[in-house]
Structures are given as structure tokens and as C-alpha cells.
Amino acid sequence: MTLAHDSLESFRKSIDASIERSFPGLARCRLAFCWPIKNEYDPRYLAKTLRDRGALTALPVVVAQKQPLAFREWHPGTELAKGPLDIPYPVNSPEIVPEAVLLPMNGWDAQGYRLGYGGGFFDRTLESLMKKPAAKPVVIGVTYELARLDTIHPQPWDIPMDYVVTERGVYRRDEGGLAFLGAPEPGGSGLMASPVCYADEDYFKGKTR
Question: What's 148's DSSP letter?
Fold first, then answer.
């Protein structure tokens, strides 16, 4: 998609604010995100904010074709190499199991399903983590409203997001599909007051870095 720089920055700041206010538990967890390419949402600004508050951040690493991804710790100064699509990945840092993932979406639908780049890496990765309930991360899809589709025609192996965040606000995946929760107001929880949405006291309780 083609977006002007000013629009991308405005969308990023809105998404950053919604995630930061709606998921305070991210500041105490192992958080994986994807290095942005093309016009994707850039999570590096939010990652810095969360690291400053105690989070450990990581990037995905392609181990082999048709295999789940690994995640390695990343912060500025970590050695990087270029992987598929010239996306940087850490080479020598410790491998971690993320407690939450910020996952870019090229397209998304009302059921919370995601279009990526067709490699299937994240679906395989999430499937492998779901086999270990204690290791299942909260998956937050990050995207733009203009990328919304009626359906992506999900295949049996596609795994929906737990939440979707756009410049408009936060969606939670319920049994019937995505429910729009709104955008939290500065200094308050707004529509985000449920512990489930906050992924804080409930999900992150007792977890450590």
C-alpha cells in the first residue's frame, strides 16, 4: 500500500498510544516484534518505550524453510544480519520464548485473520507454541484500517490474532469475531478497562523476563 510519510507517522503514533495504554503488561514481558519493511507499522519506537520500562524485546529469525521461527533478543547495538526480504535479524544474542508478539498484517478481516507475505512462518510458529499452553503468547496484530478486507478466505492452518490494533483503536477477538473496544483516552482506561484487554494482572501475573 502507498501512504504518505505524514500519514504513516500519524498512524504509528495512534497505534503506539493504543498499545501502550491498553496493554501495560507488555512493559514487564518478553516481547517479540518484526522489523518493519515497506510501509508497515514501525514498532521500534514503542519497543524502546517498553524496554525503558523493563521489557525484553526480540526479533524473529528464519531457521529453515517450512520450520517455525526462532526469536532472539534484540536491542540497539545487537549484531544483525540480513535474512529473507532483506529483513534484519539478530545473529548472536540469546534465544527467547516470547510472552507477547506484535505482528504486522498486510491484510485482515472481521474474524481476526491475517495476510502476510505467503511464507506461512508465523502460522507454523504459533501452532508450535500453542502445543505448549504455558508458552502461548498473546498475539497482537498491527495494521491499518485501509487494509481491512471482508475475508481473507482463511485456510485450515491460518491462526487468528488475539487482538488487532489499528490507527482507529483496539479490537479483541471474541467467539463471534472481532469486537471493537475503542481507543483508550490519555490518562485513563476508556473502553479498555477489562483485565482481559489489559493483558496485565491476569495474563502477565507472576511472569518474569
Answer: B
> Model-level pTM?
0.86
Q: Which residues contact 19 (CB under 8 A, 6 or more apart)?
A: 26, 46, 102, 140, 142, 165
Q: What angle do CA 126, 26, 138 make, to 5 degrees?
A: 25
Amino acid letter at 39? Answer: N
Cα gap 57→73, rounded to integer Å = 6
Measure the CA–CA gap between 182 and 37, rounded to whole angstroms: 27
Tens digits of pLDDT across the chain (209 residues) = 567 889 999 999 999 999 999 999 999 999 999 999 988 999 999 999 999 999 999 999 988 777 888 999 999 999 999 988 889 999 999 999 999 999 999 999 999 999 987 667 777 888 887 776 666 899 999 999 999 999 999 988 888 999 999 999 999 999 989 999 999 887 655 444 343 344 444 444 444 33
Amino acid identity, residue 75?
A: H
Asked if 41 contacts 11 with a C-beta cutoff of 8 angstroms, the reply is yes
